[in-house]
Amino acid sequence: ASMLDITDLHVAVGEDAKPIIKGLNLSVPAGEVHAIMGPNGSGKSTLSYALTGRDGYDVTGGIGFDGADISEMEPEERAARGLYLSFQYPVEIPGVPTLTFLKEALNAQRKARGEDEMSAPDFMKHVRERAAKLDVSADMLKRPVNVGFSGGEKKRMEILQALVLEPRFLILDETDSGLDIDALKVVAEGVNALRSPDRGMLVITHYQRLLDYITPDRVHVMADGRIVASGGPELARELEAEGYDKYVRAA
Ligand code: ADP
Ligand code: MG
Ligand code: MG
């Protein structure tokens, strides 16, 4: 089995249990980066929430992760196993310095795995090495989480958190919010830095442009709650040239 193995996934949301994901199959082996692209409303974000176990999503079907079916597990247990969804909408946390936030997030994860806390000096080294890669300054680490950060700074913070936590499997959902080229490059650098033979990644994106900086192993097109086409990186270029029309009509 692949690291992430989704079989016949159905997800319904809301009071009327509206079906959004309608029989989705997807396998992401360890060591690979897969991209999911698709028009607005095709269910990309719903998929990422269903994978992490967010409340309010009625899920049936299998979600295999590292050989275990996690589809009934609490979000905390999935996170402890190393499944991580990057923040889409950065939360501001007044009064909590970014460094403190990162330390607590890392130690909570270690605790859930039965590991010891990281010592203060080891943690500082761990963060500084990763902050340097992303041009995150010591000053920014002292400021309260995301408070008064520019869009680009929030994006760097989001990626820094992923680099600090070193998840086994990273899901990045880049929404329709207009990322500029610099922010796209920050995301791409983070993804490329996290590439590893024992880590898998799912990069959900509206932007073919992002895939100019990240070369995915596979590209999947999602329409109306299903994967309707899969291919190599050339599929992203085809979508850039031709758009989603033919997939939307076929779905
Ligand atoms: P995407 O990320 O591909 O743009 P979403 O997963 O955000 O798509 O949304 C897919 C569809 O599900 C949309 O039609 C959206 O309106 C609907 N949807 C998402 N969340 C909810 C919800 N909580 N209640 C009702 N409908 C929802
Ligand atoms: Mg959307
Ligand atoms: Mg979305």
From TrEMBL:
Residues 4-249 form the ABC transporter domain. Keywords: ATP-binding, Nucleotide-binding. Coiled coil: none annotated. InterPro entries: AAA+_ATPase, ABC_transporter-like_ATP-bd, ABC_transporter-like_CS, FeS-cluster_ATPase_SufC, P-loop_NTPase. CDD domains: ABC_FeS_Assembly. It holds the Pfam family ABC_tran. PROSITE patterns: ABC_TRANSPORTER_1, ABC_TRANSPORTER_2. Belongs to the ABC transporter superfamily. Ycf16 family. This is Fe-S cluster assembly ATPase SufC.
